[in-house]
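Final report, closing paragraph on structural work. Over the funding period we assembled a curated collection of sequence-structure pairs, and we close with a single example.
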Amino acid sequence: EFHVRNAAFSILEQDIENNPLLKKDIIQSLSHENSSSRQLAIDLLKNEVENDLEVRNKVAKALTDPEWEVRWKAFQVLARHQYIPEESMLDWLGVIYERLMSRVNFSHTMHLQITVTDLIEKVSDVPRLVNLIDHPSWAVRAGAARLFLKLHDNQIPSNYYPNFIAMLADTRSEETWDMRLYLASTFINNVDLDIDLKAVEVCLDALNYAIGPWYNMPYFAREIRTHATEILSKVDPVFFNRRLQDILLHVMQKDPVSSVRDSAYHALLRLAAAPRVENYSSG
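Its predicted structure, as stored:
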């Protein structure tokens, strides 16, 4: 029954505003026994939330629905119309980050800088946001870091450097490369050579990601290693770095992925222009 009902509602979605009976039926479905119907009803009423107080209040009640997917749908609808208090927005930060990461591929996330600001456009409580960068949950830490960077036009004020430098080596959770490389791209060529070298080291470590025969992550591994070499290709050749050269040569010759080999080649071309003074070495 609910499948037929859901299909009918979807077809008639455009008529909700001009059809009071249909709108009333959908509002009643917010309390339907089937969670999929409740979730669909919230989705169908998303354009009514801003101008209809009754709808807004009923959707807000769904934030306490026993089913998580219903609560998440209600949160999304209310957040888009800015009816979620800031403190509650930050409570959902980890979920927002995970959901956004799951719906876009790694390359789009890194290169287009998809961030949690899809739902959060401004934050006044910056101290709390910074504290979340050291939250026990990696999703919250990464979400807070991305949000902070977006709010600051991808520039990190020097007084916040320690918070973000710590994330470069943050391996408290599995598969943290996306955020660590994101930060490495931000810190690369920093005027502070110690910070610059830390960013380079993260990229060098990433070149070894998932190269063992026991790994079965062809897409994600390719994206990570390609992005690492792309960052390294942007290193300003202030000084020649023989270790970096040797690693990039190995990658160019041995990596099984052509995009990784190509990026390593371009990084080597840039490095070749560096003065042969070996005091810019990370080991």
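The CA atoms of residues 89 and 120 lie 7 Å apart. Residues 218-232 form the longest helix (15 residues). We thank the funder for supporting this effort.
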